[in-house]
Amino acid sequence: THLLTHTQNFTGKVYNDGDAIVDSGTSDTCFSHTAFKAIKSHFESLCKTTCLKGVCNCDTKKPVTQPIFESRCVQMSSEDKALYPDIEIKMKDGAIVTYKPEAYLRSGDVVGCDDDTYTIAISGNGPDGSGTILGDSFMMSYVTIHDRRSHRIGFLDLKSSKSCP
């Protein structure tokens, strides 16, 4: 499975350099060096118009020197979290799966933050060509269906699925 994320000024090749796997044993969603750098740059470019707490200095409208991407925990309100963008991941067959801020902004002991502070569950995975890992933070908004017979994976939004009686 290959993927493509939508950020400005970067083509799908940046994100499709290597294979992609879905791994519940990995907390973060991990991208190769160039793809991770592109995602960080896109978030930083939003500082001109949107104050993303942990990414932007809201007074200067420029990126902070130690961003949330460096496992830094940042205190955020629900309003602060709502300003973060959705990340659309386009699969090889054209399906688009959305990685929402409520999934990639993580809090609590499991990520080393207090309950009212957040870090981002997006990280670098190694050199270009090392592929992408769609980890637990990506999967948590979906029922993930592994169709081993047809060699494909499906994602059903938890909000649209019905619970078992």
Annotation, overall tally of beta strands: 14
Structure classification: alpha+beta
Measured between the Cα atoms of the first and last residue, the distance is: 33 Å
Average residue-wise pLDDT? 82
Quaternary structure type: single chain
How many helices does DSSP assign?
5
The major β-sheet equals: 3 strands, antiparallel
Q: State the helical fraction.
A: 10-25%
Order of neighbouring strands in the sheet with most strands: 1-7-8
Walk me through the structure:
This protein is an alpha+beta fold. The protein has helices at residues 12-15, 33-45, 78-82, 101-104, 136-139, and strands spanning 3-5, 20-22, 29-31, 56-57, 62-63, 74-75, 87-91, 96-99, 105-107, 117-120, 122-124, 132-134, 142-147, 152-157. Strands 1-7-8 form a three-stranded antiparallel β-sheet. The longest helix has 13 residues, at 33-45. The chain starts with a strand and ends in an 8-residue tail after the last strand.
Could you name the key traits of this structure?
three-stranded antiparallel β-sheet; 14 strands; alpha+beta; 5 helices; disordered N terminus
Short description:
By secondary structure, this protein is of the alpha+beta class. The chain has 5 helices and 14 strands. The strands form 6 sheets. The protein has a 3-stranded antiparallel β-sheet. Strands 6-10-9 form a 3-stranded antiparallel β-sheet. A two-stranded parallel sheet has the order 2-12.
